[in-house]
């Protein structure tokens, strides 16, 4: 009779930690491919560690001139953290609705460059200003420190409230998830730092040079509208702010190093949204930082405000034919 003996524990090969994504439902995404978070654990009361991965290539959050991760990945990562912790740690049932009140980030470009593998990130999250309705969780603020290879790559923060489906229906009335029907001819992609008209969220100006555009909310877009919604998502508004800053920049391929935003009300699908922007004068020449203040209006009410500080992607030569674009063209 044969007998199999096991190797001593000290000689057993170490199994690698297998990587997966968190449940897509926890981050409010329909497509698994759009889930950026890969795990989490509680550190202590209201403090958590989260893991994430940024891809080297993405159909929408594409690297900037092939050298820099798109900073809007930071914004989407921060957004996903809020809903993950609400469902996984604060017992918010799936199906509750979330309303973002602010989202900010600041990055360190030297630690967000593209490398030969996807960016593996460790995020330390501290939750505060936690709101409760009786025993139910009602919202919070959270601050995030994003590290890559031990170095701080970015910081961010956000705040939101959440409501039950019943309360949300009373709040929103008869508005149902659907497809936005307010479009318009897109601006030329190169003017907003994009390659495809499908990714442009600003319509051509009614008055050239006026720094005022109508939002193009195309519900067919698989990233910006990952699933049916009854209002324009906040990430669409932030992309509009980024593109508005790009239009006013001498070089439309910008690296938004800092972004601060506040949301004031729901952006409805069936009424025009106007995006207005003002660029402050840069003190560092073409490569120095410049700030752009963006405001969104709908039906004569302020939807959101956003300040974008941007520079040109470092160590990024201008590709042939990719010359600076005059905003008045």
From TrEMBL:
Ranges for domain A-factor biosynthesis hotdog: 26-162, 192-309
Q: Which InterPro entries match?
A: AfsA-like, AfsA_hotdog_dom, HotDog_dom_sf
Q: Which domain of life is it from?
A: Bacteria
What is the name of the protein in this document?
ScbA/BarX family gamma-butyrolactone biosynthesis protein
Q: Which organism is it from?
A: Streptomyces hesseae
